[in-house]
Amino acid sequence: MKYITKYKSPNYNSRNNSRVELIIIHYTALKNTLEAISYLCKKEKKVSSHYLISQNGNVYNLVDDKYRAWHAGQSFWHEITDINSISIGIELDYNPNGKNNKFSIKMIYSLKKLITKLQKNYKINKNGILAHSDIAPFRKKDPGKHFPWQSLSSSNIVMNIKNLKKNEIKIMEKWFNRNNLNSKKQKTILALSLIGYDTREVYKNDKLYKKLISAYKIRYLKREIKIKNKSVYNHLIKHLFNYMLTEN
Predict the structure, then answer these.
(1) What is the 3-state secondary structure (H, E, C) of the chain?
(2) Does 247 qualify as catalytic in the annotation?
């Protein structure tokens, strides 16, 4: 896979021997690729990504993989708060309010090719391909409700969440009951926590809980923001079961 390497961002530092475990997908929310390159390569902006993919599928390598790019910001996944040190950031030339408001076929083709290469190079699990909104659900929405996660799932790049059999659902319910979790909200929060999400404040802050559920819906429930919480819970049971199978 060929990269365009003539643009380099000065915004990076050492990973301090941290192993790359995650790939984080972002969108630029800027006018076009050149504006994004300018922004990501300006020292005073203090932001960068390892890769930027244009609408026509060109892949720009702005920071070498071995360095810690500054793309994740304040974020969290599986109790880790320094996501930049363990991740590779990929920006997509996409703006929901601009002319570049489509995830083009060429862009997604290059993205899938890049992710597949990175997964192989760094032995990254399917569960380690994340949205910016997964690691920062209380402040970020990218890559947004129109991003084609199903295309990545069909290409076996991210986990395909399969339906459970009745006995498997019973296994999950018994497991929750053994942990003295009675309400669906308690079970929902635990499931989200085990998958990796930041649930530290959602028990006592309903506003943050709703934001977290919204981020999960956008990522996993076909963009249906108005879907009922019962359906979120049922999907989370499937997700957690599938997650435990793929992690072990």
Answers:
(1) CCCECCCCCCCEEECCCCCCCEEEEEECCCCCHHHHHHHHCCHHHCCCCCEEECCCCCEEECCCCCEEECCCCCCCECCECCHHHHEEEEEECCCCCCCCCCCCHHHHHHHHHHHHHHHHHHCCCHHHEEEHHHHCCCCCCCCCCCCCHHHHHHCCCCCCCCCCCHHHHHHHHHHHHHCCCCCHHHHHHHHHHHHCCCCCCCCCCHHHHHHHHHHHHHHHCCCCCCCCHHHHHHHHHHHHHHHHHHHC
(2) no
Q: Residue 228 has what pLDDT? A: 65
pLDDT digits (tens, 9 = 90+) for 19-47: 999 999 999 999 999 999 999 999 999 99
pLDDT in tens, 194-245: 999 999 999 999 999 999 999 999 999 875 555 666 789 999 999 999 998 8
* Share of residues in the chain with pLDDT > 70 (%): 97
Give residue-wise pLDDT tens across range 107-153. 999 999 999 999 999 999 999 999 999 999 999 999 999 999 999 99
Going by C-alpha positions, the residue among 71, 55, 56, 62 that lies closest to residue 23 is 71
Which domains does the chain carry? 12-154 (3.40.80.10), 166-247 (no CATH)
Q: What is the pLDDT, as a whole number, of residue 40?
A: 98
pTM: 0.95
Quote the radius of gyration of the chain (alpha carbons, Å).
Answer: 18
Of the listed 21, 35, 44, 91, which one is catalytic? 91
Token pair of 61 as six digits = 């390598």
